[in-house]
Amino acid sequence: MTYQALYRVFRPQQFADVVGQEHVTKTLQSALLQNKISHAYLFSGPRGTGKTSAAKILAKAVNCEKAPTTEPCNQCPACVGITNGSIPDVLEIDAASNNGVDEIRDIREKVKFAPTSVRYKVYIVDEVHMLSIGAFNALLKTLEEPPRHVIFILATTEPHKIPPTIISRCQRFDFRRIQPHSIVLRLRQVLDAQHIKASDEALFAIARAADGGMRDALSLLDQAISFSEEEVLLEDVLAMTGAISSVMLARLVEAIHERDVAKALQSLEEFMNQGKDPNRLIEDLIFYYRDLLLYKTAPQLEGVIRGIAVDQEFQKLAESIPVPTIYETIEILNKSQQEMKWTNHPRIFLEVALVRLCHQEQRSTPVMSEEVRSLMKKMENLEAELQQLKGQGISVAVKDSLSTHAKKSAKSIRTSGYKTPVGRIHEILSQATHQDLSLIKNHWAEMLDILKKQNKVSHAALLYESEPVAASPQAFVLKFKYEIHCKMAADNTNQVKENLESILFDLTNRRFEMVAVPEEEWSTIREEFIREKGMQREKEPKQEDPLIAEAKRLFGENLIEIKE
Fold it and tell me: In order along the chain (564 residues), what is the average pLDDT of each group of 10 residues?
């Protein structure tokens, strides 16, 4: 087998070859040059970002015949032997398959012996988080005080699984996800060395699919070279990775913006005929709107764009779609994406989401515009009357009363669909305790999961924007972001309230009654309750200090002067 994968052929052999980790390589090079080498290092970060490669480069640099140096020469016997794995003093151990106490005890016994071929004996432990607790405990003392000729380099993708006692004994370096433009530059170097042509769009598509990992990017490039004929093109990469081109996404976004349901569903049908995954499609659609939002709000930051080509079509959509519409679209798509995880028919949810997006303005604009137009006309008439009454003493009072009347009218329009039980909420607030509210909040997420498992996804989606805000021993107040959701949850016909109370009873062993309130009314109700309580306290007679009362009895009120 003569062929080697690209990520093996072009594995970094010097710190300069490690892409996107300058904060790590610069620190290690300074330590090497000053002979400030630690006895233990911890390299953590996502997969394929250069942790193990940096560990082997560090092992070569400390053992290079030209040390101290910032880069291994890769020519001396020590560097060559470490590269091809022929030097036994540099050991690369896979903790996933050697995670027991016996393997660590064997290492602990062997570290006592001096290296035979090079200056330092280096142990590179990959995926160190896979070690058992007993193995970590066996490694503790050796890791803290190893012999002077031993260096430990631990690499992991999940540092949170490593005991703090291990982390505190190491110098920790966090490897970052590599930016797409850095990946593209490295891929271009690899292609030039292989004398292969590729378009920039294809390389950016590979970088996006690699998700910050250079090894994944090189593997995808290797696959794309085999898939293509003479030149790696964008169409080949998209067909190979299952990704979606920005041109087709722009066509779908344009159909949504034009509120053309037929065109949007036709674009979706084309995606499905090409074998695209609905979950991948909605994710790419969310990121496309995210790029539109960032391009509109921060056009000077080129690095924030995920990788979509900022062409004429993209700029046209960014100019025509307002920011509030982008916010609402991302919110609808995000909710649909969450619902798609719990169904066997994700395409249906995606189709429903596209139809909702196409009708979102048509559904809300006509009703609201008529109400706003009526209110604006009344306000213009009121302003005209105020101009006539200008200069008279009653002008301010009239203005205040009219503005109050306008606010009450607007409030009545907003809340005409649901009648909030204010008296019941005041009763709950008078008996509310922090312990009861904490009990409900601690079981809220579990309650939503149970609803989903019971195939009541619509109920869980309805309660997604709700929040328990007050609770007494018998009932609790549930705040909803939208009034329509509040009305639906309080309605007995859809059994949302009944299911919610039943599940909470199973989780808490206590029967709580749910009382719904819209978010826009909750603050007013709470302020009114606090104000009433304050007035009641003021009306209550104050009890006299017993010391003052005794002094008055002994000496008489006329001889006593009370000072605060």
Answer: 81 92 93 92 93 94 90 92 91 87 88 90 93 89 88 93 92 92 92 89 87 91 86 84 79 90 89 84 88 81 61 83 89 89 86 87 45 65 71 49 45 56 86 87 85 76 83 90 81 78 86 88 85 70 64 59 66
Domain boundary among the residues 359, 383, 405 is at 359
Residues with Cβ < 8 Å from 124, sequence gap 6 or more? Answer: 52, 55, 56, 59, 90, 91, 92, 93, 153, 155
Q: Is 230 in the same domain as 250?
A: no
Residues 371, 215: Cα–Cα separation, whole Å: 58
Which two structure tokens, joined as six digits, stand for 462? Answer: 């309805």
pLDDT value of residue 444: 86
Pairing relationship of beta strands 150-156 and 121-126 according to DSSP bridges? parallel
Find out whether 95 and 131 touch, Cβ atoms under 8 Å.
Answer: yes
Q: Do 483 and 353 reside in the same domain of the chain? A: no
What CA–CA distance (Å, rounded) separates 358 from 211? 31
Contact 425, 515 (CB under 8 A): yes
Strand pairing category for 150-156 and 40-44: parallel
pLDDT of residue 13: 92
Cβ distance 400 to 391 under 8 Å? no
Do the domain assignments include residue 500? yes
45 touches 154 (CB < 8 A): no
Q: List, in sequence order, the alpha helices (H) in 323-345.
A: 323-340
Residue 385 falls inside a structural domain: no
For residues 117 and 215, state if they share a domain.
Answer: no
- Read off the pTM: 0.59
What is the token pair recorded at 334? 């995000």
Show the beta-strand stretches assigned E in 312-420: none
Is residue 518 within 8 Å of 483, Cβ to Cβ? yes
Helix axes 323-340, 346-388, angle to 10 degrees: 150
Please give the DSSP secondary-structure letter assigned to residue 93: E
The values of phi and psi at residue 496, to 5°, are -65, -45
CATH number of 142's domain: 3.40.50.300
The reply to whether 271 and 313 lie within a common domain is yes
Neighbours of 267 (CB within 10 A): 21
Alpha-carbon span 327 to 60, nearest angstrom = 51
DSSP letters of 100-157? Answer: SHHHHHHHHHHTTSPPSSSS-EEEEEETGGGS-HHHHHHHHHHHHS--TTEEEEEEES
Quick count: other Cβ atoms within 10 Å of Cβ 35?
Answer: 9
**Residue 468 belongs to what H/E stretch?**
strand 466-471
Domain residues for the domain of 131 are: 6-174
pLDDT for position 401: 45
